[in-house]
């Protein structure tokens, strides 16, 4: 059996401090016979020395481009624009299967180089349930930032913190408000609900039953809303431009945890770009005011906690990269997306 070689890359995005594999779980991999190369990364929450102590081989940041052909490159967020040809198998969140901006270009880079995308969003069991996700922490951070903004306590730029310090900032205040969590039964929704509980905010919880026959008046009657629904099939939007201009709108703070902007499946097609750590809030309307938070790497604000949880779920699966089952479904989904773009399957390798 060929030795599995995983290559943990440095994240190009400067605000990405998370890692898909923490040092304690890296030791599980190396003890189990996996060769693990870890790139140096100045912003990763865990220093490379902790990985070396776990039996990993260090490498310079960005050196994955010249990694051995059989290495599987492991990361979280988007790849840099170069190289134009992607020759390896890559594991990360590609956001490339729902016509998102830049999706076609990314898939064509894989086709041109003969590599493959094993998208973590599509690492699922036989029932379609995701096997490793940051959803809880995305929801927790999204709701926490929305509460702080609504209370006038949110400061920019955002900086990574700990859950202890974040919860202290969420201490309940006088003159509270109502909140709505849409998608409350999923991972992100549960995280959002937990943060609102910590903040002492009374929350309404909606899921499929409530969104199937949407009461738009009730939605607009809340002060704060957290959207945790990432649609996989077309559904009527939860908010429309006309709703933002409704003079009876009570809604003042909106957090979109899913950040599906640019996708035809977006349930909140009322904004055209995400916000970020430098400018976390965007004013969508002045009168009555409506503020938007739409940050697509929220869990990186709690990098240690979110990475530890994610790694615990992912690492047992990494031993089986290349095998049928969840990873086979990932590869099938990649091939399907490429066929939809008219890219011949013969251009890909299946090893």
Primary descriptors:
11 helices, 351 residues, disordered C terminus, alpha/beta
Order of helices and strands: EHEHEEEHEHHEHEHHEHEEEHH
The major beta sheet can be summarized as: 6 strands, parallel
> How many separate helices?
11
What proportion of the residues form beta strands (DSSP E)?
A: 5-15%
| Overall SS class | alpha/beta
Alpha carbon gyration radius: 21 Å
Q: For the terminal residues, how far apart are their CA atoms?
A: 13 Å
Low-confidence spans: 345-351
Q: Could you report the average pLDDT, rounded to the nearest whole number?
A: 95
Shape: globular
State the helicity in percent bands. Answer: 25-40%
Number of strands: 12
| Order of strands in the sheet with most strands | 3-2-1-4-5-6
Structural notes for this entry:
- It is a single chain.
- The chain is of the alpha/beta class and 351 residues long.
- α1 (23-31) packs parallel to α10 and α4 packs parallel to α6 (187-199).
- It has a six-stranded parallel sheet with strand order 3-2-1-4-5-6, sandwiched between helices.
- Helices cover 30% and strands 15% of the residues.
- The protein has eleven helices and twelve strands.
- The radius of gyration is 21 Å and the shape is globular.
- It starts with a strand and ends in an 11-residue tail after the last helix.
Short structural summary:
The protein has 351 residues and is α/β, with parallel strands linked by helices.
Fold topology:
Blueprint: E1 5-8, H1 23-31, E2 35-39, H2 48-53, E3 57-59, E4 72-74, E5 89-92, H3 103-113, E6 116-119, H4 135-150, H5 163-169, E7 178-182, H6 187-199, E8 202-206, H7 208-212, H8 216-220, E9 224-227, H9 241-244, E10 253-256, E11 282-286, E12 289-293, H10 303-318, H11 326-340
Parallel strand pairs: 1-2, 1-4, 2-3, 4-5, 5-6, 7-8, 7-9, 9-10, 10-12
Antiparallel strand pairs: 11-12
Helix pairs in contact: 1-10, 4-6
């Amino acid at each position: 059996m060929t030795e599995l070689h995983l290559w943990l890359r440095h994240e190009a995005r400067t605000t990405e401090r998370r890692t898909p594999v923490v040092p304690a779980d890296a030791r599980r991999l190396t003890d189990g016979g996996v060769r693990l190369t870890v790139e140096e990364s100045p912003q990763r929450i865990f220093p490379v020395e902790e990985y070396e102590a776990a039996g990993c081989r260090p490498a310079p940041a960005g050196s994955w481009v010249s990694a051995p052909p059989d290495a599987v490159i492991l990361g979280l967020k988007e790849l840099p624009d170069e190289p134009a040809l992607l020759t390896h198998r890559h594991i990360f969140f590609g956001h490339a299967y729902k016509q998102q901006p830049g999706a076609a270009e990314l898939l064509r880079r894989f086709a041109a180089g003969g590599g493959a995308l094993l998208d973590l969003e599509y690492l699922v069991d036989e029932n379609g349930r995701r096997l490793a996700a940051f959803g809880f922490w995305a929801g927790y951070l999204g709701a926490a930032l929305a509460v702080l903004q609504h209370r006038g306590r949110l400061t920019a730029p955002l900086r990574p913190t700990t859950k202890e310090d974040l919860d202290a900032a969420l201490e309940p205040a006088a003159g509270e408000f109502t909140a709505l969590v849409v998608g409350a039964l999923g991972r992100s929704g549960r995280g959002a609900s937990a943060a609102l509980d910590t903040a002492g905010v009374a929350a309404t919880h909606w899921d499929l039953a409530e969104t199937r026959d949407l009461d738009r008046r009730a939605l607009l009657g809340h002060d704060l809303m957290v959207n945790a629904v990432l649609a996989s099939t077309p559904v009527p939007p939860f908010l429309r431009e006309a709703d933002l201009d409704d003079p009876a709108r009570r809604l003042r703070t909106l957090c979109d945890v899913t950040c599906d902007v640019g996708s035809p499946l977006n349930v909140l097609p009322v904004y055209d770009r995400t916000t970020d750590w430098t400018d976390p809030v965007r004013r969508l309307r002045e009168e009555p005011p409506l503020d938007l938070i739409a940050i697509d790497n929220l869990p990186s604000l709690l990098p240690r906690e979110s990475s530890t949880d994610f790694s615990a779920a992912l690492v047992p699966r990494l031993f089986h990269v290349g095998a049928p089952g969840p990873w086979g479904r990932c590869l099938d989904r990649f091939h399907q997306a490429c066929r939809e773009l008219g890219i011949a399957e013969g251009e890909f390798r299946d090893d």
